[in-house]
Amino acid sequence: MARVVVDVMLKPEILDPQGQAVQRALPRLGFDGIADVRQGKRFELEVEGPVDQAALDRIHKMAETFLANTVIEDFVVKVESES
Amino acid sequence: MTTRIGVVTFPGTLDDQDALRAARLAGAEPVPLWHRDKNLHQVDAVVLAGGFSYGDYLRAGAISRFSPVMETVIEQARAGLPVLGICNGFQILTEAHLLPGAMLRNNHLHFICRDQKLRVENAGTAWTGDYEQGQEISVPLKNMDGRYVADERTLDELEAEGRVAFRYLDTNPNGSLRDIAGITNAAGNVVGLMPHPEHAVEPLIGTGRTDGLPFFTSVLKKLVNAS
């Protein structure tokens, strides 16, 4: 089975208070030099059968309609591995 | 004939009983609806109640939006059925694209539970006819993901068309853009808001006021006049 990864991130113009909270905690923990943090979601899909264009089109559709809300989020589809 | 107001229960819905009760106190026949049942059982209006349907997994309202009952709700809402989304119900309506924009985590990352002052900005919708334009009301607010966002063009459009139905007063509790607490669709039959009118329908509890009851009497009057 091949693994396809869908990364979902808030659009750049949308405020991400969770990412900010993480960023603010870093210096306190001794991790300096991080100017900004944005938090997102990663979906790992184990795909049955070949990951051809048709399968990728379906995954794209799935990401667009369900995994991401394109009003507030962007997504990227990547084929990670054939295993 | 009695007006029937349906209230949908999803797994994780919390406020369905209060919404059914509010419908009854307003003089309607309350009808429980189930998320897996496509049939709306001849209701005249639908309330999507608050809670954490499907645990807010993925995004608040994202999974409920694809439930069988929503297929019919979406279809009927487009045909003019009055639909009110409260809190999680509002989130479901934005996920279903019946209302524009989206709801995100409160800007301060805290769960809020408080009485919230609102201004009724549009008293012309199916759910707000019993309010005065500009009336100030107080109803409970309790949520984690209450920050309303939309792009500038959508916000300008909502303002220009009078589709901001409710605005937060005194303080913006969650970072919602332009202090928006609730909006309506262009036809005025679909309304969504984060605060909870169904918790403010009896003087005995909450604020001691019944500022939320007009939501339910408004839709009743609208339906009776229409029939």
CA radius of gyration of chain B: 16 Å
Q: Helical amount among residues of chain B, as a percent range? A: 10-25%
Biggest chain pair contact, residues each? A-B, 11 and 19 residues
Strand tally of chain A is 3
The end-to-end span of chain A amounts to 6 Å
CATH topology of chain A, anyone?
Mth169, Chain: A
Query: Architecture of chain B in CATH?
Result: 3-Layer(aba) Sandwich
Q: What is the number of domains of chain A?
A: 1
Largest sheet features of chain A:
3 strands, antiparallel
CATH class of chain A: Alpha Beta
> What's the average pLDDT of chain A?
94
Q: Can you summarize the main beta sheet of chain B?
A: 9 strands, mixed
Q: Pairing-aware structural class of the strands and helices of chain B? A: alpha/beta
* Helix content, binned percent of chain A: 25-40%
Organism (chain A): Streptomyces antimicrobicus
Enzyme class (chain A): ligase
EC number (chain A): 6.3.5.3
Pathway (chain A): Purine metabolism; IMP biosynthesis via de novo pathway; 5-amino-1-(5-phospho-D-ribosyl)imidazole from N(2)-formyl-N(1)-(5-phospho-D-ribosyl)glycinamide: step 1/2
